[in-house]
């Protein structure tokens, strides 16, 4: 049971206690009054300005026997406040008194803080943890989950009526309902930890009681590292060390919480005074505490932004910076992800923008070949963005994650008295997971710990798997040089695994790079030998790996290892998803959320939101495939066309759908149902309100789902729970209505890969009897009875090195011997892959099974000493040859039978997108960045020039741009002048490119592909002096390396060849921003090859085959992201 | 009274010892040793050491070597006078301990059980918040009618002078201060007037008039 479970249990007891003294159905305020009276606490409302409150909303004054609260809140909110203070009274009994501000009392806060964004950091000092507990308690006290379940299911009550009947705020009811319905409850949870801790073994005791010098404790897997850390803290306190002088720095919030709880279990009073948290949380605390220090001049409530927020800032400024390598103007997001990563890395190394620039410049000066030159130029561009980024942060008084360490560390390093103060206060510093501490944190640590006499750190260099997040594994090796006179100890007994498994990974460890500078790993398994050696099950191909793994899972289950005690570990998420699907296909339940925003049920909800906010209403395409809203494709098209033609937003048009001519009866019913369920929502509705009302009051799909025992349904519920909590967090940044902002943020998160944490199963759902599917990173710190590792094929484990997109400038990363940014990256990659495998193996308690392709085995297989047991004749679980999901839709040939060439060339990128965009005319709301608007104006001007034959006339062009700008430009934007200037420049380039050419009238060319006709409309056709015809494609961007590969040029060739004959024409690519003119002349073979592809595309279109081509970059930026790949029943009309 | 004096002497002598041993400037190792030896004074010792550091920073001098003990530099004498201020403050205004410091203070409200406090409150004709404001020294004694102060002091078993001296000390903030992210205290240094406190209380008009008139 975690701490929150205990708190909820106590709350329910108190609820029962109160109810036993109150007749009928009391209101929340009555409940708390009764309990307060029993606790001999008086409740006193006071003016908000009253000195007793001193700015707080509520105060528990234990010694006065009173709870004071502001008197200007409604009764239901007062009930919550008092409940919150009662929580402190019952649960945090060691405190003298508590003072709770608006930020503290947020009773609807989810008990697990958001795993994404700035809350990841901010939540977590000891006080914040206590406030979270008090919030959870108050909710459960006033409306226990069993009660709300009964009200909702048995009495069919809606949240609003529950709230008014019981005198509770609506937010509280909603949050309780969400928890009660969507978190599966388990009848027989496993006992998770032995309640009684056995005494420390000699190695642990020696480490816990050590004194007199800085200590580095090497703790291999399963050796009781956390126990020893807890014991260390307890030992210090028992020796009369002041708990307030102890600070314990952990790697994650979860670890900090666990540590605090475990110390509290032994020494409840003292534990509250020990500071536990992450380096980031500590840094934030320092910044907040010393906010008037000249180096840390931030407002005391300074906000922390995450990458997604940073993107929102930079997106609009990026096109204005003088970049060329990173200038993918159509979508700055692509490059921003890499650039932000590079900046984050720089902050991890405490490198300022000026220093970065200097290093990059040095690199450029030394460059002797094209490659190095390009790398250096890229680094210089990163420096430019970095500088701009820092200015924006300073202007808005914001911090990002890197700043949380960088700023306090720099302040500490420069200010001796600040350093002295902190060293005086925090005399005992303990660090967990020392191998994952990055260079910036290590410097902060040095400033904090001084000579380190009372410094105590524990880690395992062989489990260093966060190097790519900037962790510096060198820290472990150079501990003695960082803290002279340091000593080293190690833990030698492993309590987790059998001797066979321990021997296996100890054997592997001998060849690991990470073992350099460490004591040799020799662990005795406390559990002794089991007779089961770790295995390798070699198979013939990838499909067979899935079959073998699945069969193996069932085999173990039959032999007594339940599914929930088995885990399958992967190096990448994509593999994990494949295997999750493979196991499910074979009827094996898996505990797996996957990418939250790609799940069906979540996409359904996102489509709902999108439909409400997007006037074009394209998301109807998905909604029309769902239950009560089923509408045939033809009617969907009719409806959307109607919206477009009458300029009516889709949501509004829904009301009067009946008036649309030609709708089928089924359609009328479907639209009516949808209109009913969306009644009252509008563009400006809060997404949270919409979802709560929709899920709990309107739709009917949640109830059966919430009562199902099927693991897959339970996973859906957990996914929705995760999603709702995500939506609840406010998304302050960005412009536009709340729903729009939410959807944009989701797109950003997916592109940045920042939603990875949302894939983690919330701990509340951990008891499901299903196989755990985890990445190796996600498995850190956990253990399982049986572990399956299906990646023992060459290229999978270890993962092939793929280079780095924004290598740091040489000399930035100060690791001994390697100063080249690229070399550094390559070497840490190799070392880290070894560590990942080491971590994977060491998760297993009794069974460890590997699977791989026998023909191309992983090179690690040979390094496991003693060798893995090669198993023969093991079972495989075949699956019925299931029809590969076919993406064929019924199509009807159209009147003209002609496909547009530009459109056809988009088919290559993603056929599904082609279907939505060109055949179904689904626009999706345009992302209206100023950049997009500016370029729209340019294209519109060029188009008008083509139509009116004015391409050569500079004055005309600029006037046309002017008038277009007035209508469609990014007016009122902060950088409007700059964008206008760029647009003008682009138009001038266009005019220059047209100079001296005899421009022909615009016309269409026909090209005959075997499967259909294609119409090619060149952007410009001109005649040279010598009679050669010039077909030109005009783009505003920059010439790409693979420009020639685009089909459109081949189509131009085909068109021109037919009209003019070979040798009488040329095809040219004009790129206006790069100001280049390039002749495109692919070889005959290439042309043939591409025409073949184009023909195949045409054939697919005729046949109605439109498979999606997902990739993590393009999908989140596609307008059809939220509803892909749905399609209502019906026939698609071809042109 | 006698027990108080003994404890009082103890803190004073401990602080002096510390002051002498820490010589030219406090060091974490020395503070650590003292906190271990006298855990009940850990907070006072730590606060003192921290303030000492601040003083040094403000004076712009770095902690010199250990033989500063005998020099009567302004820094040293300031540190010593500061020391005595703190001792006095602690003694007279000590709030209920967190369990680590068990020192008895000359706080008339110290250890007052709820029933007694409530009885007192009723006798005085005030409500709990008002009572607490006196306890936390949030009310300026100069604004309180002397007859009321007299009655209050008597109920607490003190002379009026002793009670007023107590009330003049800095206000006490109602926080579990050690556990918060220790922000800058947002405490009001200014005290409230008796009239304001009475007017904003929950008492009836008649009772308010009665108090203000007395």
Short structural description:
The complex is a heterodimer of chains A (1135) and B (214). In chain A, 46% of the residues lie in helices and 11% in strands.
Q: From the alpha carbons, calculate the radius of gyration of chain B and give it in angstroms.
A: 21 Å
Report mean pLDDT of chain B, rounded to a whole number: 73
Number of strands of chain A: 31
How many strand units of chain B? 0
Low-confidence stretches of chain B: 61-73, 92-105, 175-187
Spans of chain A with pLDDT under 50 lasting ≥5 residues?
none
Class computed from helices, strands and strand pairing of chain B: mainly alpha
Roughly how much helix do the residues of chain A carry, as a percent range?
A: 40-55%
Classified by CATH, the class of the largest domain in chain A is Alpha Beta
How would you portray this structure in words?
The complex is a heterodimer of chains A (1135) and B (214). Chain A is 46% helix and 11% strand. In chain A, strands 17-18-16-19-20-15-21 form a 7-stranded parallel sheet. In chain A, strands 7-6-10-11-5-12 form a 6-stranded parallel sheet, sandwiched between helices. Chain A has 1135 residues and is an alpha/beta fold. Chain B has 214 residues and is mainly α. Chain B has 2 domains: 2-93, no CATH class; 114-213, no CATH class. In chain B, helix 1 runs antiparallel to helix 4 and helix 3 packs antiparallel against helix 4 (74-93). The chains are: A alpha/beta (1135), B mainly alpha (214).
């Amino acid at each position: 049971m975690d701490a929150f479970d205990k708190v909820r249990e106590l709350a329910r007891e108190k609820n029962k206690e109160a109810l036993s003294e109150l007749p009928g159905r009391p209101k929340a305020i009555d409940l708390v009054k009764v309990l307060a009276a029993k606790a001999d606490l008086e409740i006193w409302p006071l003016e908000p300005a009253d000195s007793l409150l001193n700015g707080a909303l509520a105060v528990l004054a234990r010694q006065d026997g009173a709870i004071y609260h502001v008197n200007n809140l409604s009764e239901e909110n007062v009930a919550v406040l008092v409940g919150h203070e009662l929580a402190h009274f019952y649960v945090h009994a060691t405190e003298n008194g508590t003072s709770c501000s608006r930020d503290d009392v947020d009773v609807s806060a989810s008990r697990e803080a958001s795993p994404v964004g700035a809350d990841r950091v901010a939540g977590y000092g000891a006080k914040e943890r206590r406030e979270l507990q008090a919030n959870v308690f108050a909710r459960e006290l006033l409306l226990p989950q069993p009660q709300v379940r009964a009200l909702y299911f048995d009495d069919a009550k809606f949240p609003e009526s529950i709230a008014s009947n019981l005198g509770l705020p609506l937010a509280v009811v909603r949050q309780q309902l969400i928890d009660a319905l969507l978190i599966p409850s388990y009848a027989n949870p496993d006992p998770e930890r032995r309640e009684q801790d056995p005494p420390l073994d000699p190695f642990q005791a020696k480490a816990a009681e050590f004194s007199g010098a800085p200590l580095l404790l090497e703790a291999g897997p399963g050796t009781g590292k956390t126990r020893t850390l807890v014991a260390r803290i307890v030992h210090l306190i028992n020796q009369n060390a002041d708990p307030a002088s102890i600070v314990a720095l952990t790697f994650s919030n979860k670890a900090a919480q666990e540590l605090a709880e475990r110390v509290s279990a032994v020494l409840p009073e003292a534990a509250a005074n020990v500071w536990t948290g992450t380096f980031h949380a500590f840094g934030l605390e320092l910044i907040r505490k010393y906010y008037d220090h000249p180096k840390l001049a931030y407002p005391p409530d300074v906000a922390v932004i995450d990458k997604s927020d940073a993107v929102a800032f930079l997106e609009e400024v990026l096109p204005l910076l003088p970049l060329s390598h990173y200038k993918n103007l159509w979508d700055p997001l692509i490059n921003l992800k890499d650039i932000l990563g590079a900046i984050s890395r720089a902050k991890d190394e405490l490198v300022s923008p000026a220093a970065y620039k200097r290093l990059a410049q040095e690199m450029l000066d030394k460059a002797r070949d094209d490659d190095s030159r390009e790398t250096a130029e890229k680094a210089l561009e990163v420096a430019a963005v970095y500088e701009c980024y820092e200015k924006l942060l300073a202007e808005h008084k914001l911090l990002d994650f890197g700043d949380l360490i960088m700023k306090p560390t720099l302040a500490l390093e420069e200010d001796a008295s600040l350093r002295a103060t902190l060293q005086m206060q925090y005399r005992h510093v303990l660090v967990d997971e020392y191998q994952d501490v990055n260079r910036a944190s290590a410097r902060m640590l040095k400033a904090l710990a001084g000579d380190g006499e009372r410094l105590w750190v524990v880690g395992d260099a062989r489990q260093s798997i966060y190097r790519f997040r900037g962790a510096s594994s060198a820290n472990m090796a150079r501990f003695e040089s960082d803290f002279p006179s340091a000593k080293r100890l190690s833990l030698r007994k492993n309590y987790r695994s059998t001797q066979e498994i321990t021997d296996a990974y100890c054997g592997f460890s001998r060849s690991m790079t990470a073992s350099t500078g460490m004591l040799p790993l020799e662990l005795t398994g406390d559990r002794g030998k089991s007779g089961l050696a770790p295995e390798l099950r070699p198979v013939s191909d990838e499909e067979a790996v899935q079959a073998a793994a699945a069969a193996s899972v069932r085999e173990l289950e039959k032999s007594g290892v339940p599914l929930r005690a088995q885990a399958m570990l992967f190096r990448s998420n994509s593999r994990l998803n494949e295997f999750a699907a493979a196991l499910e296909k074979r009827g094996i339940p898996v505990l797996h959320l996957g990418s939250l925003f790609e799940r069906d049920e979540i996409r359904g909800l996102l489509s709902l939101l999108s439909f409400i906010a997007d006037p074009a209403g394209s998301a109807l395409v998905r909604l029309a495939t769902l239950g009560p809203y089923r509408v045939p494709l033809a009617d969907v098209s009719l409806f959307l066309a109607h919206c477009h033609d009458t300029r009516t937003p889709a949501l509004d048009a829904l009301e009067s759908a009946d008036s649309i001519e030609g709708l089928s009866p089924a359609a009328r019913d479907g639209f009516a149902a949808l209109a009913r369920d969306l009644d009252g929502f509008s563009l400006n509705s809060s997404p949270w309100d919409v979802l709560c009302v929709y899920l709990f009051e309107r739709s009917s799909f949640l109830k059966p789902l919430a009562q199902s025992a099927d693991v897959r349904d339970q996973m859906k519920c957990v996914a929705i729970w995760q999603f709702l909590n995500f939506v609840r967090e406010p998304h302050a940044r960005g412009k536009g209505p709340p729903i729009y902002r939410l959807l944009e943020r989701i797109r950003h998160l997916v592109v940045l890969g920042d939603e990875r944490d949302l894939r983690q199963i919330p701990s509340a759902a951990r008891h499901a009897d299903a196989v755990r599917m985890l990445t190796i990173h996600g498995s850190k710190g956990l253990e399982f009875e049986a572990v399956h590792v299906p990646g023992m094929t060459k290229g999978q484990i270890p993962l092939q090195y793929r280079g780095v997109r924004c290598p740091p400038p040489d000399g930035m990363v100060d690791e001994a011997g390697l100063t080249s940014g690229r070399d550094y990256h390559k070497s840490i990659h190799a070392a880290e892959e070894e560590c990942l495998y080491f971590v994977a193996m060491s998760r297993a308690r009794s069974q460890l099974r590997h699977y791989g392709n026998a023909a191309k085995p992983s090179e690690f297989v040979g390094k496991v000493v003693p060798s893995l047991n090669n198993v023969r004749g093991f079972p495989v679980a075949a699956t019925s040859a299931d029809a590969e999901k076919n993406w064929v839709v019924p199509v009807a040939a159209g009147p003209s039978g002609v496909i547009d060439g530009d459109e056809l060339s988009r088919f290559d990128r993603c056929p599904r997108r082609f279907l939505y965009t060109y055949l179904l005319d689904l626009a999706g709301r345009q992302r209206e960045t100023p950049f997009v608007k500016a370029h729209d104006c340019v294209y519109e001007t060029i188009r008008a020039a083509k139509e009116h034959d004015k391409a050569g006339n500079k004055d005309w062009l600029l006037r046309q741009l002017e008038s277009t700008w007035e209508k469609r430009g990014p007016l009122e934007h902060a950088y409007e002048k700059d964008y206008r200037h760029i647009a003008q420049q682009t138009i001038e380039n266009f005019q220059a490119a047209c100079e001296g050419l005899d421009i022909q009238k615009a016309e269409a060319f026909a090209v005959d592909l075997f499967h259909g006709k294609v119409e090619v409309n060149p952007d410009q056709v001109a005649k040279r002096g010598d009679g050669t015809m010039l077909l030109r494609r005009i783009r505003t961007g920059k010439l790409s390396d693979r420009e020639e590969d685009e089909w459109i040029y081949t189509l131009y060739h085909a068109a021109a060849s037919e009209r003019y004959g070979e040798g009488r024409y040329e095809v040219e690519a004009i790129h206006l921003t790069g100001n280049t003119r390039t002749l495109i002349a692919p070889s005959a073979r290439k042309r043939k090859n591409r025409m073949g592809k184009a023909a195949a595309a045409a054939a697919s279109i005729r046949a109605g085959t439109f498979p999606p081509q997902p990739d993590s970059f393009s999908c989140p930026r596609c307008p059809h992201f939220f509803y892909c790949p749905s399609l209502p029943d019906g026939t698609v009309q071809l042109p | 009274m006698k027990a108080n004096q003994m404890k009082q002497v103890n803190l004073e002598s401990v602080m002096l010892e510390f002051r002498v041993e820490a010589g030219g400037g406090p060091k974490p190792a020395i503070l650590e040793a003292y906190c271990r030896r006298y855990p009940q004074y850990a907070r006072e010792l730590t606060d003192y050491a921290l303030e000492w550091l601040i003083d040094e920073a403000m004076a712009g001098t770095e902690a010199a070597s250990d033989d500063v003990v005998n020099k009567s530099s302004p820094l040293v004498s300031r540190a010593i006078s500061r020391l005595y201020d703190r001792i006095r403050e602690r003694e007279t205004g000590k709030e209920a301990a967190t369990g680590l410091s068990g020192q008895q203070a000359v706080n008339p409200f110290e250890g007052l059980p709820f029933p007694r406090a409530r009885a007192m409150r009723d006798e005085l004709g005030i409500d709990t918040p008002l009572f607490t404001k006196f306890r936390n020294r949030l009310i300026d004694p100069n604004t309180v009618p002397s007859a009321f102060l007299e009655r209050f002091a008597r109920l607490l078993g003190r002379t009026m002078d002793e009670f007023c001296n107590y009330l003049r000390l800095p206000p006490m903030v109602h926080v579990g201060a050690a556990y918060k992210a220790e922000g800058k205290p947002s405490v009001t240094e200014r005290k409230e007037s008796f009239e304001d406190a009475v007017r904003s209380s929950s008492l009836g008009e008649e009772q308010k008039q009665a108090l203000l008139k007395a």
